[in-house]
Amino acid sequence: MIPLVFSNPFKEKGFWFKGNIHTHTTNSDGALDPHQISFLYKANGYDFLFITDHGKATDVKGLSEDFEDFLVLPGVELGMGSSEAGTRYHLVALNLRRVIQSDDPQSAIDEALKEGAEVVIGHPYWSSLTVNDLIRYKDYLGIEIFNSTCHLSISKGYSTTHWDDLLVRGRFLYGFAVDDAHWHFNPHRPVDACCSWIMVKAASLTLGSLMNALRNGLFYSSNGPEILDVDLQDGSIRVRSSPARVISFVANTALGERFTAQDKPIDEAVYKMRGVERYIRIEVEDKIGRTAWTNPITLKP
Fold first, then answer.
1. Nearest by Cα to 235 from 276, 174, 282
2. Which fold has domain 224-301?
């Protein structure tokens, strides 16, 4: 038996909630006000939304009461520090209710945690961050592995290579698919809202329950496909999903495996572990290239 470590949301009790953790309004550089953007996400089947304006703690009090079974949550996007390339870090602080006045990412992360918030590093590819930039800091929850607006605007939305670079070095962080919604568009660029999400398994649709689930990795990310189940037993990992063109088990170095549909879509794949993987994460890709991602499964030392 290969000892594995994985907070498996598919085996936890609770309910699935769909949400976006990175959103802008007219309080920074978004085109819609807080009520308008909340209405948009509610109308598109989301259950919760973090509003994370740039350098602004937007007041979300009372917004949730305007909608039935929909939660609007506080946050801030903080720009600070300097990377190897001289660019700034963008820290998406969830459940932060004030702007932290610091230009040091680690100090900001530490302060946010003290206030019950959690930090995700935004769009590493778009920000020109390297693995050295990301491994320099600690105690943040994860990174954005897909960012809709970065993808739709300049084709720099995917940061899964950054994720693998961290995982292979033993930094087992979570991966988040987000919109970074601004509702900016032109004839050559689709609207950047309601494109990506995380599916969270939580006991209830409350701030405390959602934050607890995020801290424990009880979610998967997607910009299209659905992951239905992940089962770990007898040294194998089995995944079931919505119809897919490709199901991939991504691991360190030359390990892992890719399963590709032939005559018809696939909705299941099984990976037999070698026992020397440092981590394994699952990607499900549909026929038009949209992807869903699990958080990493690791081997117990």
1. 276
2. Immunoglobulin-like (2.60.40)
